[in-house]
Write a structure and sequence with these properties.
There is one protein chain. The chain is mostly helical. The protein is 76% helix and 0% strand. Helix 6 packs parallel to helix 7 and helix 6 crosses helix 8. The longest helix is centred in the middle third of the chain and has 57 residues.
C-alpha cells in the first residue's frame, strides 16, 4: 500500500510539472496536449479528492461558455482585445486546476491513513466481539489475551501517529503506557486506568495462581473499546 502511495505521488508530481509547462506556453495551440493532461488529472482528482472534482471540472465547463478554458479554446473572435481577455481567464482557470491537482499530494497520506484506520477499527471490533463471546462462554483467559493484542496493536499505531520510538525491541502494555504518559500523550489519570487494564491482561497471560474474574474482564473489554476510540 505504501508503494502504491509513492507511485501515485510521483505520477501527480510529473503531471503537475507537465501542466506548468503547458501554462507557460498557454495558447490555443496546446489544446490537444491540454486535453490529454486534463483526462489524466481528472482521474487523479476524482480518486484522491472527489469533493474537489466539481471545482476542477468547472474551470473547463462547456456550459459556462467564454468564462472557462473551453471558451478560450473554441473562441472564434478575431478582435485581439477580446481574445486576450478570454486567454487571461483561461489561464486563471488552468492555474486553479493545477492548484487542485497539487493539493492531491497533501491528501494522499491522509486518505491512506484514514483507510488504514477504518480497516483497523473494523478488525478491532471483530476481535472484541470474539473476546465478549469467549467471556460469555467462560473462557476468561482467552478473552483477556485477545484484548491484550488489540491494545498492543492500537498502541503501535499511536506511537506512529506521534512519531515516537522506544529503545526496547519488544514492548508490553506497561511499556507503551509509560512511554505515552512520559510524552504527555495523556494524563496520569488515564495512565492509571491503562495500568489497571494491563494488570488484568497480565493475569490472563500468566498462570500464577491468581485467576482473573469475569468482572475484571468486563472492565478490560470496556476499557479496550474506550482506548481505541479516544487515544490516537
Amino acid at each position: 500500500m505504501k508503494m502504491i502511495n509513492e507511485i501515485l505521488k510521483t505520477e501527480i508530481k510529473d503531471l503537475y510539472d507537465e501542466g506548468n509547462k503547458l501554462l507557460e506556453d498557454f495558447s490555443c495551440d496546446i489544446v490537444i496536449q491540454y486535453q490529454i493532461w486534463y483526462s489524466k488529472a481528472h482521474r487523479i482528482v476524482s480518486a484522491v479528492i472527489p469533493e474537489r472534482l466539481y471545482d476542477f471540472e468547472s474551470q473547463y465547463d462547456i456550459k459556462k461558455g467564454n468564462l472557462t478554458i473551453h471558451g478560450y479554446f473554441t473562441s472564434v473572435d478575431t478582435f485581439e482585445g477580446i481574445l486576450e481577455n478570454k486567454k487571461d481567464r483561461a489561464i486563471k482557470c488552468f492555474a486553479i486546476q493545477l492548484g487542485i491537482l497539487k493539493s492531491c499530494l497533501n491528501m494522499i497520506d491522509y486518505r491512506l491513513k484514514n483507510i488504514k484506520s477504518l480497516v483497523q477499527a473494523d478488525l478491532f471490533d471483530n476481535q472484541l466481539d470474539s473476546a465478549k463471546n469467549l467471556l460469555k462462554n467462560g473462557y476468561i483467559r482467552a478473552s483477556g489475551a485477545i484484548c491484550g493484542v488489540v491494545l498492543e496493536t492500537h498502541f503501535k499505531s499511536v506511537l506512529l501517529n506521534h512519531n515516537l520510538k522506544s529503545n526496547k525491541k519488544t514492548m508490553n502494555l506497561s511499556d507503551y503506557n509509560e512511554l505515552l504518559k512520559n510524552e504527555d500523550i495523556y494524563d496520569i489519570a488515564t495512565w492509571r486506568k491503562l495500568q489497571y487494564l494491563s494488570d488484568i491482561r497480565n493475569k490472563c497471560d500468566h498462570d500464577k495462581g491468581i485467576e482473573p474474574t469475569k468482572e475484571e474482564l468486563e472492565d478490560l473489554i470496556k476499557g479496550c473499546e474506550a482506548v481505541i476510540k479516544t487515544i490516537y
